[in-house]
Amino acid sequence: MKRRFTPWLWASPTLLLLLGLLLWPAIQLVRLSFCRGGGGRSGFGIGGSFYQPGTWTFDVYTQLARDAYFWDVLGFTVWLGLVLTLLCVLLGYPTAYFIWQLPRRWKATALSIVVLVKLSSLLVTVYGLKLILGDYGPVNRFLQWTGLTNTALPLQSSAIGVVIGETILIIPYTILLIWAGLERIDRALIAAARGLGAGAGRSFVHVTLPLSLPALATGTLVSLIWGLGAFISPYLLGSPQEITLAVDVQRQMFENLHWPRSAAEGVALLLTLALLVALCALPRRWLWKKSGLEAQAV
Amino acid sequence: MKRRLTSLPLALPSLLVLAALLWPVIYALWISFTPHEILQPPGAEWSLRWYHDFFAQPRWMDGLRNSLITAALATGISLLCGTSVAVAVTRYHFRGRRLLQGAAMLPLFIPAIVLGMALLPMMRTLGLWGTHFSVAAAHSLWGLPLVLLAVRGALEETDINTELAARGLGANAAQTFRLVTLPMIAPAVGVGAVMAFVISLNELVMALFLCTSTIDTLPKVIWPNLRYTLSPLVAAASAVTVLVTFFLLAGVVLLHRRILR
Predict the structure, then answer these.
(1) pLDDT tens digit string along A105-114?
(2) I want to staple A165 with a disulfide (CB 3.0 to 4.6 A). Which of A82, A233, B71, B149 is the partner?
């Protein structure tokens, strides 16, 4: 009888953390989105409040549904999320494949570049990008030197800047996940295909690619999740036209001090995420089955 | 030889991607050594003046201190939760085991902005808003799954019979864990700890929501500067976080070598 509870005893700190910092805030978030706004525009917590606790209303949601600005923001968020996913996968897969093929020593170097860039502050990358993409930055100077353009291209404060920046911030995840999937493939299978007369291209299409599809699907999913939640790059490398839901959540909270609206937009972001992930997960399950790798599922 | 040739069309874009990843970081570090007031890369002359400024100004030093305190707290929480839950899922079979693992990994798949926005009202009602603990607790949502992954792998590889032998010889569960299991998985716990520390040190979005001016972490102090003033001082501040991260990760590599040996 006592043994039944032992694992839960071990798990109790985690359970406490997850219940207190994940489940409860999630419930609070939804509850907050049904509160009346506090009308607290008159300063940070002074003279007004962020919301009126204990009230129940659909105001925020009806307001959002009618707000053309909100739909623009949502549309841009989804567009950006899809573009980023596509770019990360199209660029990430070859890179992961390339790293996988490298000899041991170079592989370690390439992987540590990816991990270091990912783990050091995102802000360093954004700072560097702001300088590189700026009007007088090396990219623009190079383009003008080659004569491709006469005036500086708006690489910064534009959708181009946002896409470049966020791709660089997300792609390490994609590369690492796909690389890890490739690394799990039994190299003997590829050697066998080559030995039986398949060329490099054929053995890739018929052996390596199908076996790496589950990892590719996971990589796509994670890119999509991070792409939809894009915040740092749109905020720092975009213009006021490039507002994502994540940026607006933060603005509603700290600039408009309309917490219920911020919460409702957070809920909208999560719902969009869930919907797109579900759409992606359907073919994913099918892929797992097809490649016969269910047993290795995380 | 043939393999090299066929992989050239693959190598070129891949190297470009890697270069694109590395370039902004290198460029920022390079700028941080400029002797000039303006954002011009250092030419013949390199200078540490911006680092002097960084270490001389209390605003930045407070940020660094707050970051280190927060990261240390977050590491502690992540280690406590991550290690214990790793024991639960590797040493016991019980209903809800997979669900528990999934739930522990879940925070990695939720946008930071939603986590931050959901945690702020809660911390405010609890009266914890503006404490190091609130930020650290939020960061441990990401540290916990990383520790779990590292420690779970180590636990799966250690021989469970050693533990059973200890139990058979009369040690209780706590003694067995402390004297037998923990020494065996210590390097993995170390790796998990460094990962949790580094993640917390560099995390910005949750900190943006949960920090108040007295406990601003270094990324939060850097943040407004990136929008308005790109002084080389900001590059120096970023460089400091990169250096700390780099040394910690080098430590992980050394630990990892010890595990493999």
Answers:
(1) 888 888 888 9
(2) A233
Gap between the Cα atoms of A176 and A113, Å rounded = 11
- In this complex, do B222 and A123 lie within 8 Å of one another by their Cβ atoms? yes
Partner-chain residue, chosen from B14, B29, B111, that has the shortest CB–CB distance to A246: B111
**pLDDT at B17 > cutoff 80:** yes
Q: Which residue has the higher pLDDT, B160 or B81?
A: B81
The pTM for the full model equals 0.87
Interface contact flag, A17 B39, Cβ < 8 Å? no
Partner A contacted by B10 (CB < 8 A): yes
- For B100-147, write each residue's pLDDT tens digit: 999 999 998 888 899 999 998 888 888 888 899 999 999 999 999 999
| Domain containing residue A266 | 56-293
Q: Note whether A117 contacts B22, CB cutoff 8 Å.
A: yes
| HSE-up (13 A, CA, CB side) for residue B139 | 34
Report the CATH number that the domain containing residue A121 is assigned in CATH: 1.10.3720.10
Q: Do B25 and A269 touch (CB under 8 A)?
A: no
- What single string gives the DSSP state of each residue in B120-171? HHHHHHHT-TTSHHHHHHHHHHHHHHHHHHHHHHHHHHS-HHHHHHHHHTT-
For residue B63, give the CATH number of its domain.
1.10.3720.10
